[in-house]
């Protein structure tokens, strides 16, 4: 491609709307442009990048024996109503009506439709197992679309669904997808971690997420270097820890704590440690109020809480008015003693003695609180978020934590959708059996952001060859020098003849501008034709490499071809 013909609107300035590196670089390199919050167009370079990623996903799905099909994105409501997800998705689902007032949605994910397809098209047990997939645009009206392609409202997902006769079949289909995912993310050049994930509300017997560790990731992951355990925060099992406290039975004491609202203020006021406190937080869970307790230095994990309570909606912090009504006090003084709503306590609370809680009275706390004597929770359960330094639940080693970008998710669904929609088969004996399903998603467009988030430096993107929009660029230093232009074009033609997807920077720009652009758009390798062109000497430089090396034209071309073919 001649760069003079390319639509490549690179920007020198960092766009104000972008907070994270990948988003900034995708805008600056002219890969994408925003249309509305979470909705983007792909410009030519962005589309080439996208297609390379998509192609890797497709190749590996095909290699794994999955079959591609393509569903509509505009979907009639019925199947989602039958599964209950018309309500479950709530405001996340884009809903609309046609001219005859029929309900439709823009598909957020397609379990229902694939299940329906199997019901309609497959009738004999002999046709199982099957894994079907599509690479398709999904729509979710996310509460916080942000970070460019990372969390879009329109985004591309590869979604696959496996259909098996029994659990053993599902295990096999799941493993095949697991292996395919490992190949995909490796080929994308991503450094990824596989974590155990929560399968709570979705039912199902197992689930794993493919995470790219990154400070901008929105998911917390806990891992142990000693035994290889890794799980996301929702799934990670917390080992309760006992901290020192005053021993022996002491009488419950009410103390005046004026102007101390936060744990920090209380710690200072009372001369205690944060772990001597128990926080009591009031949640609204499906129209019921519950009090949730964790140690003062811990945080509640709302997904664990949701699974424990089995509520349909995500639990929400109770509004201040409700807190005042329940506790008869200002917000910040809730406690378990005599609160009058069910109390759910983290397992660690069970190990505490003589601790401090809110007294359900403004500016008052209780100290020397004891379980059993002063209050009794409904239940002790693991409802806190794991932290760095916790004990590994598998080997007792030390847990470390990191943020991760969820690029893929594989899930043993079991019979959730086949039961809801009636996907059955007749076995050899003519007996009706339920089909066992798995589902497997990759955020194809999110992968683009993840790749750039991992592969960049202060000058721009450093594309892995496997997904680079263009593989090489030939840059004549001075367009006015005919000799340079000729040689550069000849090198460009030779690279093309070798099957290299090359750029020729024939633009009438200063050399500095050309170099900056080549770096910004992350071309993996470049050949610069300059002063020594008359001697047949050019410069070869890999984008990720340190410095340019002079080579003969033949060597430079051969090295580009070798480098690209080895790294594709
Ligand atoms: P998240 O927790 O990030 O919202 P999810 O768990 O709801 O994602 P899944 O339903 O598991 O997402 O979808 C499969 C894959 O699709 C995810 O692993 C992720 O890579 C991608 N994905 C989900 N939501 C978005 C989005 N809003 N924008 C881009 N990619 C997304
Ligand atoms: Mg997920």
Explain how this protein is built:
With 568 residues, this protein is α+β, with helices and mostly antiparallel strands. It has 14 helices and 31 strands. The strands form eight sheets. Strands 3, 7, 8, 9, 10, 11, 12, 21 and 24 form a nine-stranded mixed β-sheet that branches. It is globular. Magnesium ion binds next to β21.
Give a brief rundown of this model.
By secondary structure, the chain is an alpha+beta fold. Helices cover 27% and strands 28% of the residues.
Keywords:
568 residues, alpha+beta, 14 helices, binds adenosine-5'-triphosphate, binds magnesium ion
Biggest pleated sheet: 9 strands, mixed
Low-confidence stretches: none
Using only C-alpha atoms, the radius of gyration works out to 29 Å
On the 0 to 100 scale, the average pLDDT is 95
As an assembly, this protein is: single chain
If helices are DSSP runs of H or I spanning 4 or more residues, what is the number of helices?
14
The amount of beta strand, in percent, is: 25-35%
The percent range for helix content is 25-40%
Label the overall shape.
Answer: globular
Structural class: alpha+beta
Number of strands: 31
What is the straight-line distance between the termini?
19 Å
What molecules are bound to this protein? adenosine-5'-triphosphate, magnesium ion
GO cellular component, one term: cytosol
Main location: cytoplasm
GO molecular function: aminoacyl-tRNA deacylase activity; ATP binding; catalytic activity, acting on a protein; proline-tRNA ligase activity; transferase activity
Domain Aminoacyl-transfer RNA synthetases class-II family profile: 38-464
């Amino acid at each position: 491609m001649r760069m003079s013909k390319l639509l490549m609107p690179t920007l020198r300035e960092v766009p104000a709307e972008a907070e994270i590196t990948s988003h900034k670089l995708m805008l600056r390199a002219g890969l994408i442009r925003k249309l509305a919050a979470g909705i983007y167009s792909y410009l030519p370079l962005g589309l080439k990048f996208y297609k390379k990623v998509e192609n890797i996903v497709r190749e590996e799905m095909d290699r794994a024996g999955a079959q591609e099909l393509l569903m509509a994105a505009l979907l009639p409501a019925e199947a989602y109503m039958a599964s209950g997800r018309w309500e479950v998705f709530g405001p996340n689902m884009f809903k609309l009506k046609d001219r005859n007032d029929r309900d439709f949605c823009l598909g957020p994910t397609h379990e229902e439709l694939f299940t329906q397809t199997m019901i309609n098209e497959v009738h004999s047990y002999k046709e199982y197992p099957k894994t079907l997939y599509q690479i398709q645009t999904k729509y979710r009206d996310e509460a916080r679309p942000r970070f460019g392609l990372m969390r879009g409202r329109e985004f591309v997902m590869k979604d696959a669904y496996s259909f098996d006769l029994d659990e053993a079949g599902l295990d096999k289909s799941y493993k095949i997808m697991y292996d395919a995912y490992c190949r995909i993310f490796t080929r994308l050049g991503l450094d990824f971690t596989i974590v155990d994930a929560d399968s709570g509300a979705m039912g199902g017997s197992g689930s794993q997420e493919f995470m790219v560790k990154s400070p901008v990731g929105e998911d917390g992951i806990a891992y142990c270097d000693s035994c290889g355990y890794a799980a996301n925060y929702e799934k990670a099992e917390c080992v309760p820890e006992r901290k020192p406290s005053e021993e022996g039975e002491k009488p419950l004491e009410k103390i005046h704590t004026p102007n101390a609202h936060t744990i920090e203020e209380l710690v200072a006021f009372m001369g205690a440690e944060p772990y001597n406190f128990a926080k009591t937080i009031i949640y609204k869970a499906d129209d019921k109020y519950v009090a949730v307790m964790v140690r003062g230095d811990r945080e509640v994990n709302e997904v664990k809480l949701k699974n424990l309570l089995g509520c349909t909606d995500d639990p929400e912090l109770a509004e201040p008015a409700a807190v005042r009504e329940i506790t008869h006090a200002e917000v910040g003084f809730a406690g378990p003693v005599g609160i009058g709503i069910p109390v759910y306590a983290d397992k660690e609370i069970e190990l505490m003695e003589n601790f401090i809680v809110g007294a359900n009275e403004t500016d008052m706390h209780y100290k020397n609180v004891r379980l059993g004597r002063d209050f009794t929770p409904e239940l002790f359960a693991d409802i806190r978020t794991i932290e760095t330094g916790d004990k590994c639940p598998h080997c007792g080693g030390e847990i470390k934590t990191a943020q991760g970008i969820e690029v893929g998710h594989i899930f043993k669904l079991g019979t959730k959708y086949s039961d809801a929609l009636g996907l059955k088969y007749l076995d050899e004996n003519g007996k009706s059996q339920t089909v066992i399903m798995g589902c497997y998603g990759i955020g194809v467009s999110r992968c683009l952001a993840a790749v750039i988030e991992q592969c960049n430096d202060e000058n721009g993107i450093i594309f892995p060859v496997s997904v680079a929009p263009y593989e090489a660029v030939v840059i004549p230093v001075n367009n006015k020098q005919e000799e340079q232009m000729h040689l550069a074009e000849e090198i460009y033609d030779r690279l093309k003849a070798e099957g290299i997807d090359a750029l020729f920077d024939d633009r009438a720009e200063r050399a500095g501008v050309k170099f900056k652009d080549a770096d910004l758009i992350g071309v993996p390798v470049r050949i610069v034709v300059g002063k020594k062109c008359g001697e047949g000497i050019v410069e070869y430089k890999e984008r990720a490499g340190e410095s340019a090396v002079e080579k003969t034209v033949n060597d430079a071309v051969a090295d580009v071809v070798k480098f690209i073919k080895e790294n594709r």
